[in-house]
Amino acid sequence: MQRRAVCRRRTWRRRRQIGVEGLTHHLNCAVSDKAPFWKSKSLAEMSRAEWESLCDGCGRCCLHKLRDEETDALAYTEVACRLLDLHSCQCSDYAGRKKRVPDCVKLTPKKLAAIDWLPPSCAYRMVAEGRDLAWWHPLVSGDPESVHRAGVSVRGRAIDERGAGALEDHVVLWPGMMPRKVKNDT
Q: Could you say which DSSP state residue 80 is in?
């Protein structure tokens, strides 16, 4: 069974430049009767700030994936892109990522329809499928750490690609599964 690496990353946004709490208050419309933007707009209608804020910061999209050349089956690994900070789950060079990692995918509404490797917990995927954001999402919780406390992120689970060796030795199921029984301690 031959496997090849597939595009394994997508855009990671530096929400701290905007400030998640401020963005949550501004975009979520929590103080009004207006529906949150992710419920009232299509992905294509969102502003850049709204689009960028949809990422929950889990880092699952930045894990390497393998695709079987015969069956086209997708396999997730626990191996993270070399630019992913394994503690913050943010790209360490977001602005220069395409130069340093040419196959890094800049996710757009148009590209989203053709991508099958986003995890089921991904907010982009959830909104595209008509589902609401999970309680751990920073736009819902108001706390960028909630995704980590809930155990949804790759923090403490992923390994750096520089010391990983063969990707085939690191195939795991959890990145491609919806998190089970995560604890809501907020």
A: E
